[in-house]
Amino acid sequence: MKLLSEAAVRQYREQGFYAPVPVLSAAEAGALRRALEGHEAEAGILAGPLRHKSHLLFTWLADLVRHPRILDAVEDVIGPNILCWGSSFFIKEPRNPGFVSWHQDSTYWGLDPADVITAWIAFSDSTAANGAMRVIPGTHTMDQVPHRDTFRAENLLSRGQEVAVDVDERQAAMLELRAGEMSLHHVRLIHGSDPNPSDQRRIGFAIRYIPTTVRQVAGAHDSATLVRGVDEHGHFDLEERPDADLSPRAMAHHAAVTGQHAAILMRDTGKAMRA
Prior knowledge:
Blueprint: H1 6-15, E1 17-22, H2 26-43, H3 59-64, H4 68-78, E2 82-92, E3 100-103, E4 111-112, E5 117-122, E6 133-135, E7 147-148, E8 162-163, E9 173-174, E10 181-186, E11 191-193, E12 202-211, E13 215-216, E14 223-228, E15 237-238, H5 248-265
Parallel strand pairs: 14-15
Antiparallel strand pairs: 1-10, 2-12, 2-14, 3-11, 4-13, 5-10, 5-12, 6-9, 6-11, 7-8
């Protein structure tokens, strides 16, 4: 084990999640938040496609997806050859109705096998009071369950997708995190989160990691970032690290990559991807 204990890995295998995992110092978490909010002070709230695969746009997020402590924990679960397939900001503004419905991440991603782990990094404290993630332990052992698309404006998911099966919320576990901590969850785990009625902004950054053995089976082209080890399989085009924050080269690369990604995630809807 590089970072996680054997008990932590066992919990992940048996329940589909593990938290909290301290990965960043308070100073590191604070610096990331300042970088985000510094950009927003100049350019406006980060929204739309800029919230998706943001590690291709900002050097400080390119560093984050390669952070040794994050990767050490991920390696303990999926092995040493690691691709970052995606990243997304999940930001809940104060007193805002935005929420995440109960869902499985695997519904529209097209990744096979379902050996995908999300590292959800807290840039701010994530608590019950401001809409922390909740999970249904053990549901990662289920197959893919039916979902319905709602496209609700308040739903932070790309298609507003929600499970079309009953969820026993009495079984839910709340994953509260301090800034600098992360949670890990499996791609099939049913999870969601409530709105933020508090006065505090809740900022999370979800990084999707896969071993290099995983394939994209729902689209002809897909890409990912090699962040550790070697890629002997070549199932994904390898992405470029940004040469500077929001440089013309980084913006062009991000647009091309996210266009392909959106075509996979939004297939058969006739709609553009929101975030």
